[in-house]
Write a structure and sequence with these properties.
mainly alpha, 2 domains, 0% strand
Amino acid sequence: MIRQEWHVDGDDLAAYADGRTSAVMVSSVEAHLLACAQCRSALSARVHAADTDDDRVWAAIVDRVDRGNRPFAWSSRMLVVSISSPPLAVATVLLAALLVAFVCFARLSDARHATTMLVSFGPLVPLVGARFAFGRSVDPAGRMAAAAPTASGRVASTRAFVATVIACLAGIVVSPLTTLGIQESIVWLLPALALSAISVAIATYEDSTVPTVTLGIAWLVVVGAWLEDVPSALRGLSVDGLVTDRPAVQAALAVATAAAIAVCFMRRDSDPNWRTLS
């Protein structure tokens, strides 16, 4: 009986595992492997080690991509994805800056004018930002909804939420320049939240451009009617004709906001298929 006395050299085994050997060497190594359990075990261990190294490399790449910018490494993956759209970031900051600039410019004339400016345009800024979050240029995943690992509706909704929060914070920052007290801030905050939430809820089903424009015009009409009811001498000082002293209106806005948020939550794993159209 012929005993197996030799084994494949380690370098040759590595070359075989990597596919770097000639056809003659491949035949020789494979013939030996058929009869040598020790070399088969060595080859298996080498291949397993290589796979482990590859897995480690790919895991590092995935972690780097998921983390995005280091300042946001502490946050959830969804939040990182939500704020990692440069066009949306630029649009959100620009809208918030415009609101701040308009209110500050109005304040140079009179605090009452600053109040009118904030009440008139404060709710429109988050509304526009929320709609912009669903744009194709903001989230290209809208074109790849069928292949995306995460529903693009969830990504767009979260981005809309971030844009809304930033816009509202901008309004809160300039509120001291107006005649509004802390409690009176609901005169524009409640409509801002309601309008934005409704726009996002609609956008999970269809293009919300027309509804968003309609909501914006409706709000301006309401503000215009409020201004007509308030004497010129008191405009900007009194918001009684709008929301502040009307619990029914406040409750209706709160219910509308909650209902729209509930719709967004139920539709969180659905793709807004209208965005996939060219």
